[in-house]
Amino acid sequence: xxxxxxxxxxxxxxxxxxxxxxxxxxxxxxxxxxxxxxxxxxxxxxxxxxxxxxxxxxxxxxxxxxxxxxxxxxxxxxxxxxxxxxxxxxxxxxxxxxxxxxxxxxxxxxxxxxxxxxxxxxxxxxxxxxxxxxxxxxxxxxxxxxxxxxxxxxxxxxxxxxxxxxxxxxxxxxxxxxxxxxxxxxxxxxxxxxxxxxxxxxxxxxxxxxxxxxxxxxxxxxxxxxxxxxxxxxxxxxxxxxxxxxxxxxxxxxxxxxxxxxxxxxxxxxxxxxxxxxxxxxxxxxxxxxxxxxxxxxxxxxxxxxxxxxxxxxxxxxxxxxxxxxxxxxxxxxxxxxxxxxxxxxxxxxxxxxxxxxxxxxxxxxxxxxxxxxxxxxxxxxxxxxxxxxxxxxxxxxxxxxxxxxxxxxxxxxxxxxxxxxxxxxxxxxxxxxxxxxxxxxxxxxxxxxxxxxxxxxxxxxxxxxxxxxxxxxxxxxxxxxxxxxxxxxxxxxxxxxxxxxxxxxxxxxx
Length: 511
Ligand code: SF4
Known about the structure:
Elements: H1 12-18, H2 26-48, H3 63-72, E1 76-81, H4 84-96, E2 103-105, H5 110-115, H6 117-129, E3 137-142, H7 144-148, E4 159-160, E5 163-169, H8 178-199, E6 214-218, H9 224-233, E7 239-244, H10 249-256, E8 260-263, H11 269-277, E9 281-283, H12 289-303, H13 308-328, E10 334-339, H14 344-353, E11 357-363, H15 372-380, E12 384-386, H16 391-401, E13 405-408, H17 410-418, E14 423-425, H18 426-430, H19 437-452, H20 455-465, H21 488-510
Parallel strand pairs: 1-2, 1-3, 3-5, 6-7, 6-8, 8-9, 10-11, 10-13, 11-12, 13-14
Antiparallel strand pairs: 4-5
Helix pairs in contact: 3-8, 8-10, 8-11, 12-13, 13-19, 14-15, 16-17
The structure holds iron/sulfur cluster.
């Protein structure tokens, strides 16, 4: 018999095989990718999507962001190149979120990866797909392993039979969040569209060119928000332009052909770089709440050389309605909030203006100049703003501030509910509703107040379930068989095994 500490590891090879992916082996992947010719791309990602204060937020596979943008575009085929398990997860998630398109996949094995056959397979698949009667563009996304192996998507033809080919690397070890992965694809498409516009005339928008100068909107927003923005801009002689990421290729030209750009979501660094390269002024923040709308309209007016009397007209038309909506739907209670969509600071502003005692807002996205106005406003109102927030920081904020409502990601909401604190999922319940103008103020208050009113129900449930057991005793047990016993020695054993495996891996890395 072995002492429990000396027990052999069953199959150390499995650790090596399974060790490359989003859950481990990141440094190896990164250095493999760099030595396989991806240094330039990865260095640009490191600049566009700075990490820290910790390594990477805990979030879904980043490639989902690019995949979702591709799947939402008309006449666009989206093809993944990556490990089957990653493709399975990404396909599942896309259909869970209602994708109505097929996800393309070019499979590989070690041999086709090492010999370069994978690239030939991708090339062949792209040629087969490139039917101009079906598609305007084909997006090919290199996931972690093909990026680390240097599969050179940049060598694909730029266009086949008139169908544009966009190849991008979206590895989990280079792009921190799925939000920023949306930017990787949107930025690549804008760059391509600028190149086309420089060559000569391009396709007009589906409903014709807007007669007024437009403000392009960067960031996925609730469908009614662009209409609200258009209504607010109207007194200034301006109109709302397309939303980037666009839903159709030809909208890219219309987006570029704007008077100014509204960076509603501030993390679209690569896309905003393309707009700046096209000579467009970028304005941060958004028309959210009273103060936010007032300063946003002023900044848009100045950027578009609109006379002050027209800017004032726009403000006078909308601000009283926003004030009325805010005071008609006050929020009373202490709240902590976090999310990974990129709109967290905007929602936070609206909560504060609605009267909420907001103490903390965490976002998985990085700090950029486009969120400075929102951060400064929130900090001036006593809110702690945490960029690249980790789950641990979000949980610590909840413990410290003991809110009446915790808005956040799934694990935050779960932890809140366990602590008898009402919780709301940011992605499903907060970011899927209007934010701008009077509609935003009323809509947010409805859902938040309903959740705040749930405190009594949580307490009643806690009373009801008290004593049914938790941890190793949770569940329904036959009294005759007794309640399960805690086995701390089993937990210690497993913990020691994991530590041992990690040490082995570390030692192998150093060889
Ligand atoms: S592609 Fe996504 S799921 Fe696959 S290893 Fe990379 S980060 Fe993980």
